[in-house]
Write a structure and sequence with these properties.
Transferase(Phosphotransferase), domain 1; two-stranded antiparallel sheet; alpha+beta; 2 domains; disordered C terminus; Phosphorylase Kinase, domain 1; transmembrane; 13 strands; single chain; EC 2.7.11.1; seven-stranded mixed beta sheet; kinase
């Protein structure tokens, strides 16, 4: 009983810190243009009318919800649309034809209040077109719930590997490059723009949600590492991530850095190229493609292609993407490129630059 009380007090203290942080941010931006202030004032007025508390970040208004409201929106958690490492995800109807996705963190699946509050803290700090947005959260009656932006077209994993996805048609070569560029932009934002920086630690196709065939958003921030301290840390941490995607250097040393996300992105590129899963028994996709992807002959590289593409690819683009994947998968993490460099190379690749413009 004493341990439970202690956990409640700790959770409450962390939540108060989060709310105070947001209040300070609200005060800091209150001098913005009058139009912005009026828009926020109108938003606050709308929230008060329906009796819900809310607070503003520099990007949007985040609402806090009572458990009963979430139950009504999800019809008592009736429609499950996803499964995470520590959670289930349910469809929520928000009214006016709008939908959301409720992530329900489950203790029996390894979730805990600290992880939940860490994820809320991160989501309150970030905003990017290629990141799934936080709409609100609930910490009520033992439940830990995140209300997130709803992306209707399933995950990249489903589209590449699910038998049901065949009815939606194969993602074209240009679709795959565009999706890769969106996720590269998302990771570049987390590493270089977010303050403090964020290391995702779980970049994989099931955490990439498709807006449409050409555009995607990165989701699930439950394993993120926040703060400048992680960049120069010399103390090993518990290994987090998904087999097949986890940085080999991170596995060997326990030291995580933005280059760990770069490695995972390299695996993701191979997944888009080959249409194969990240793990085949005990063999990773990086190992399985090792000989073929390091060959200089484009015809040999073509042998890795997803058969569903029927060879309908641009050879020069393939050469660039394979080269980028090879660099992202280097054992020496310091030698890997940044996500900013990778995003630039993929963007240039979409313009079909000549071979002389290959990254080195």
């Amino acid at each position: 009983m004493g341990s439970l009380s202690k956990n409640i007090w700790i959770g409450g203290a962390i939540l108060i810190v989060i709310i105070l942080t947001i209040m300070l941010r609200k005060w800091a931006v209150c001098s913005q243009a009058q139009a912005t202030s009026l828009a926020r004032a109108q938003g606050d007025h709308d929230q008060k009318e329906i009796g819900l508390s809310s607070f503003s970040t520099t990007k949007s208004i985040i609402r806090t919800y009572a458990l009963e409201e979430i139950k009504v929106a999800t019809r008592d958690f009736r429609i499950r649309i996803g499964v995470g490492a520590t959670s289930y995800v349910y469809l929520a109807e928000l009214g006016d034809g709008r939908f959301g996705a409720v992530k329900r963190v489950m203790e029996e699946r390894g979730g805990c209040q600290k992880m939940f509050l860490d994820e809320v803290s991160i989501l309150l700090r970030i905003s990017h077109p290629n990141l799934v947005a936080l709409l609100g959260f609930c910490l009520d009656k033992g439940e830990q719930l995140l209300l997130l932006e709803y992306i209707p077209n399933k995950s990249l994993y489903d589209r590449l590997h699910s038998h049901k996805a065949t009815s939606s048609g194969c993602l074209s070569w240009s679709n795959r490059i565009s999706i890769a560029l969106d996720i590269a932009h998302a990771l570049d934002y987390l590493h270089s723009v977010a303050d403090p920086p964020v290391i995702h630690r779980d970049v994989k196709s099931s955490n990439i949600l498709l807006v449409n065939n050409n555009h995607a958003k990165l989701a699930d921030f439950g394993l993120c590492k926040l703060g400048h301290d992680a960049y120069g840390a010399q103390t090993p941490t518990i290994i987090r991530g998904s087999l097949g995607y986890v940085d080999t250097n991170y596995l060997n040393t326990g030291l995580v850095s933005p280059k760990s996300d770069v490695y995972s992105f390299g695996v993701l590129l191979l997944e888009l190229i080959t249409g194969m899963k990240s793990l085949h028994g005990s063999i990773t996709l990086a190992e399985w493609t090792n000989e073929c992807r390091k060959h200089q002959d484009v015809d040999v590289m073509m042998g890795m292609l997803d058969p569903k593409l029927n060879g309908q690819v641009n050879g020069e683009q393939l050469r660039v993407l394979v080269h980028v994947a090879n660099m992202a998968l280097l054992e020496n993490s310091m030698a890997r490129p940044s996500m900013a460099e990778i995003a630039h190379w993929i963007s240039s690749c979409m313009e079909r630059l000549p071979e002389s413009h290959l990254p080195t």
